Structure prediction request, 296 residues.
Amino acid sequence: MRLVVTLVFLIALVAVPLSVSAEQAKTIDELAAMYNVDACADCHEDIHKDWKDSWHSKSLTDSRVIRTWRTFILNGLDKDGMPRAALKDTCLGCHAPQIKDAAPEVSVKIAELILVAADDPDASKKEAAVNELSKLNVNCIICHNLKATPDGNPQAKTIYGPKGNVDAGPHKEQLGFETAKSDYLKQAKFCSECHHGCSPGMTAERCPTLWFAYNEHYLTHGGNKTCQDCHMDAKDYGMSHKFPGIMEVDFAKTGIDLTLNASATEYLYHLDNKIVPAVIVNVQVKNTAGHGIPHG
Ligand code: HEC
Ligand code: HEC
Ligand code: HEC
Ligand code: HEC
Ligand code: HEC
Prediction:
């Protein structure tokens, strides 16, 4: 009996790494293919366009990201003698969570491309590196599958939506995907999967994130909107997937209520013994966003 158990254990030891590595993408192209969302555009054209214009679709190619990651790779990982594959567990977990399905060499390749995109003197090489990096980002499948359940354990080949819409038959017919309901997608907590990131037990003083500000200030002062209510509000069609933030001026303006009251007066200027005209300005500023502004 013991021999059988030992044998089963040994087989399991051999089988597990094999089956895991069989699912692991070896190149950026393989990983991008596993998370391809081109087909979504066929039926959700407006949403796809909004998302394309959003920061979520540029989560590896935003020039702030490229330059900061370059510094982190050279001055953090390389200097501390850490392998560049560690990018998987440090930055990519939120900026390209699909990395969980890739072999370590993909993270090493991403690090290489970041350095070229940031510093290569040859503009065409820079551009080619950015194009390669643009294949990975926070896309439809990341939010509507990978991060869509609170236990982090979504069903494969399933599109989670806020309604679990029965009309989404084409998902099955055309893509072979089920459609399931996820209430989690409508909760602010869903966004904190990436917009928080503090280790458990850390306080707001040590790790001042938007999520802390939202919970400890906005909600406790009577705020009742979710992140989605403000950031996905779209008048024209369905949910806006543009996710405007601080860079979108018209949206940013909605985060501040400014009242200016000016009235004319005059005062006695003591050095010259003269009456001079003056203005009294009464300024009232109210933060109407769901967290500190600016918060970045
Ligand atoms: C817990 C998730 C998470 C991790 C881990 C993470 N990021 Fe981010 N990062 C975000 C989110 C969310 C934003 C957008 C937040 C915003 O604009 O307020 C962001 C924005 C950025 C920006 C652009 C905004 C800015 O402040 O300039 C840079 C640069 C950046 N991250 C670099 C990094 C680097 C380097 C690492 C690894 C050391 C990293 N990130 C790890 C979630 C994460
Ligand atoms: C950053 C996360 C995120 C990304 C990326 C994302 N979505 Fe969504 N999407 C959501 C959330 C959250 C909701 C639900 C909002 C609610 O109901 O409060 C939603 C709702 C939807 C809905 C339902 C709309 C409605 O009016 O009820 C559709 C359809 C949809 N998404 C399609 C897509 C497609 C297609 C893509 C890629 C082009 C995409 N999403 C990318 C987070 C995301
Ligand atoms: C062949 C057409 C078609 C394709 C391709 C397609 N969808 Fe849909 N999808 C629909 C229809 C129809 C609905 C139901 C009506 C609606 O909500 O727009 C729907 C609904 C949804 C919803 C909302 C589900 C809910 O809870 O109500 C989400 C999320 C979604 N699709 C995401 C995606 C993603 C992500 C892709 C790409 C991987 C995709 N769809 C590809 C046709 C399609
Ligand atoms: C899988 C991780 C992930 C999830 C889930 C996610 N985001 Fe993000 N979000 C990011 C990253 C990474 C960036 C930074 C992209 C960049 O600038 O390079 C970002 C950028 C943004 C920005 C633009 C920030 C700016 O600087 O103006 C807004 C707004 C935003 N997210 C809102 C949301 C909201 C609201 C939700 C929930 C419905 C959400 N996000 C869910 C990862 C995520
Ligand atoms: C009552 C509306 C409202 C709610 C609720 C809200 N936001 Fe915002 N958010 C805004 C406005 C307005 C801005 C732009 C002003 C600014 O950033 O200074 C903004 C800016 C941002 C930015 C851009 C960069 C920054 O750091 O300032 C991110 C990222 C973001 N919000 C994420 C979230 C997340 C995640 C939640 C939920 C935990 C949330 N927001 C809840 C209105 C809201």
In short: The pocket of heme C (ligand 3) is lined by residues 37, 39-40, 42-44, 140, 144, 159, 161-165, 167-168, 170-171, 174-175, 179, 181 (CB under 6 Å). The radius of gyration is 25 Å.
